[in-house]
């Protein structure tokens, strides 16, 4: 194995791959990159996996001899990061990877690459093609709402439902919900192609619907490698895994196989009160009042009527705080609701428009939050459950 490559052409790829290398594992080989070099095509392929997500990246280099090695991911990244900003030469010599640039030389021990897990084929047949910016938007508007409770594994992922004429992503931790729906968008192949796609991807053939729950780690990686210059993402769907082709990256991900809860049952059929307000002004007020909010439940309260909107909190250990809001529009009767302020801030961060629309009922009802000016062809919906005394 022997190749040469500019540092600037190698470093960005391995910086992304480092996000997948497991911090703790029971198999030492997973601490390594699998590096394969192809002389006939002048390509380098680097693979990493934690057994739940596998990432393969392919890129060109000046290859004079092919081969495969496994090498410590951490040491490889650190060495490349501190090499001079010029051409780097890499070659295998016995059980060492030689790394040289200018007057800097490293000899890095290699591992037995035959112990590395079997890597799937990087070809995607019958894949869905989707606008990469739209996919990135769908993920960014939902992933923050996933649960961190490993005992509720299915809630640690984002649910993607694909119907014949629209598709949607949603996430919930039981306290908040984030949902984005893309209307008038046909991603699935025609029904007559179903057998060629692998019919078991259709969880409900009568509705021509695919439902998959994607681990948040997979989606966070896709957000990290997002590049506005890469216009398309290709997605392959199988019964128990998904594959993403994006630029030079191929991502293979397990899916969460439990049934996703019917979160939409929590959406109130009607909420009689409604207000609109500048999103930044509301965020600032919440952050300000939250300086004395209780540490145990992070409680903040909205109190509204026709001529008053107060954001307040009370903490027996530290004191009270409140702010009377201005420049808002309220329609409804007097009401109040308490909530976890960090959850509300995370939702407001996902609101696109300058003003947020918030609908509410009594102190027992959830709040529904929307963009004031929805993006055409899209529906963005957020729910926040109340805190009860």
């Amino acid at each position: 194995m022997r190749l040469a490559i500019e540092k600037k052409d190698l470093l960005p790829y391995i910086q992304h791959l480092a996000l997948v290398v497991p911090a703790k594992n029971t198999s030492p080989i997973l601490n390594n990159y699998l590096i394969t070099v192809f002389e006939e095509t002048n390509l380098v392929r680097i693979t990493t996996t934690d057994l739940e997500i596998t990432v393969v990246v392919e890129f060109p280099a000046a290859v004079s001899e092919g081969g495969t090695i496994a090498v410590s991911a951490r040491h490889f990244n650190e060495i490349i990061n501190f090499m001079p900003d010029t051409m780097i030469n890499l070659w295998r010599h016995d059980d060492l990877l030689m790394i040289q640039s200018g007057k800097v030389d490293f000899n890095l021990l290699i591992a037995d690459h035959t112990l590395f897990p079997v890597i799937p084929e990087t070809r995607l047949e019958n894949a869905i093609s989707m606008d990469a910016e739209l996919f990135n938007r769908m993920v960014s508007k939902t992933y923050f709402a996933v649960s961190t409770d490993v005992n509720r594994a299915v809630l640690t992922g984002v649910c993607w439902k694909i119907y014949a004429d629209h598709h949607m992503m949603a996430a919930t931790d039981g306290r908040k919900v984030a949902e984005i729906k893309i209307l008038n968008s046909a991603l699935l192949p025609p029904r007559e192609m179903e057998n060629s796609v692998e019919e078991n991807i259709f969880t409900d053939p009568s509705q021509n619907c695919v439902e998959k729950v994607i681990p948040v780690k997979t989606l966070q990686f896709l957000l990290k490698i997002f590049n506005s210059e890469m216009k398309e993402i290709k997605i392959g769907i199988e019964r128990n895994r998904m594959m993403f082709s994006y630029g030079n990256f191929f991502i293979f991900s397990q899916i969460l196989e439990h049934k996703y809860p019917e979160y939409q049952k929590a959406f109130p059929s009607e909420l009689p009160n409604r207000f609109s307000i500048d999103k930044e002004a509301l965020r600032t007020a919440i952050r300000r009042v939250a300086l004395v909010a209780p540490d145990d439940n992070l409680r903040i309260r909205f109190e509204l009527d026709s001529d008053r909107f107060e954001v307040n909190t009370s903490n027996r250990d530290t004191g009270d705080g409140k702010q009377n809001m201005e420049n808002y529009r309220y329609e409804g009767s007097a009401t109040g609701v308490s909530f976890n302020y960090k959850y509300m801030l995370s939702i407001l961060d996902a609101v696109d428009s300058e003003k947020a629309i918030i609908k509410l009922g009594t102190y027992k009802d959830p709040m529904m939050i929307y963009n004031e000016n929805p993006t055409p062809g899209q529906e963005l919906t957020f729910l926040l459950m109340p805190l009860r005394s």
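The longest strand covers residues 53-60. Helices lie at 7-17, 73-82, 132-140, 194-197, 216-224, 279-289, 341-350.
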